[in-house]
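Section 5.1 Outputs to date
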Amino acid sequence: MPRRVRRPIAGHGQLQRPRAGVEVLKLLGIASVVVLISALSVVGYVLYDLSHTFTTKAVALDGEESVPPDLGAIEGGVNMLLVGSDVCEEDFKAQFGDRCSDPESGGERNDTNLVLHISDSPRRVTVITFPRDLMIPIPSCVDSDGNDTGDRAKEPLNDAIGIGGPKNGLACVHRAISSISGLDIQFAAKVTWGGVMRITDAIGGVDICVAGRISDPENTGLDLGPGTHTLQGYEALQFLRVRHGVGDESDLSRGSNQQVYMSSLVRKMTSSQVFGNPGVLLKLANTVMSNVTPSSTLTSPTLLVQIALAMKDVPLDQVNFVNYPVFDDPDNPGVKVIPDHVSADQLWAALAANQPIQVAGQRDAVVSETPVPTDPASGDAAATDPATPDPGTTSAPVELPSNVSGQSAAQPTCSRGNGG
């Protein structure tokens, strides 16, 4: 992708303190004041209030000194690495059985690896899922003891966080994915199992459609019958972790299944239930700041607000979830995968040119759901018609290779369970 350069932009105003006197507040009433507070003000307040705690957890990334402090000064699009860690936390150990009690199952892995790309104007959002079983070179990292780990010629991607250790694991994952993709990834964040559960609860759960029972008694313990389920807490995490109950039971099916969740999550976040509800936003911002480990580049409250604003008005049909293209690993067929660089290069070229993209459809773990019309008066973003072109689209979508699967957030989908 093209090198980012700095360019001047208009400054952003500071959050204003209310100037009305006590008598005016009494007349308006506390409830009325809360209604008048914008979503941005609520999020901004919490971000500033919690910024010290957030900053103390920050992890340094390669090249962070060249990242501008303002989102608008990054030309060519913004990239953020989002890592889901399976580290066992004291509060949740009892729920994971042998995974957290058996010494041979210990350690930490980066089980979910996403790169969020936010394009320049017109704004588009693309989320790329990198499989945990992707076999790639892991560049040398500095571990928690300050030792150089040395280059690894071929390792599973989800070993990277453990190679870097508790202090530098996120930086090691960042280096590995930056190397294999060639992307300039300016920001990164890590969330644990417990963090996923708390964040899902903060927004009141995520609605998931299931086509065919998902039954995985021996691994995640998830059991969901056909229909729509509002997933919260541990059940939401079970759904994100399940692989043996969906599709062909591969890690690739798990990735596609997670995109059903993420697509529904985006529709929920952009609806009146979350973004239009200051109270929910306040709770969500507090939860995120308390449960996410950021890169040093991601600790500015102003920058976080800018990222939220850059994404909030993107039409759902311009929010795409895609799977990084892979081939079966000839050294371990049916278990591990290797990069399909030719197909990936076509994806990177489309993102660099800020072209709308069209993916070939989802894997067998996912089936399309017939969209249910919604009332535009409700303010829910889910009312977006995926067949209606975005006003910012100036060209036909680029049809990506068949090996690049995925879906848009405007496309309701269901998980295809294989439990009968």
